[in-house]
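Journal club prep, shared notes

We agreed each person brings one worked example of a sequence with its structure written out as tokens. Mine is SYCE3 protein. I'm keeping it raw so we can talk through how to read the token line rather than staring at a rendered picture. Sequence first:
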Amino acid sequence: MAESESQEGNYANKGNKVQNFKMDMEELLEKMEELTVRAAWMSYDCVPIQTNPDLHNALQRLEDAFLMCKEQMEKKWQEVLTD
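Then the structure, token by token:
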């Protein structure tokens, strides 16, 4: 009697493990699909940058301005926190 209950518990446990494995695999597949789409868009975005050097320079200036702005905001935030 106790043996059959133990076996039923083992079967249920295995069923849960299989279900969890399936869910984990589905999540990983979704993440891989998302990464594939991102990689495709990144390669798509690289074509204009390679064919138009002015665009690359403009993007570099924009990134530099963003980083300077971000640095200033972080400094101001630190000043606010220390006051």
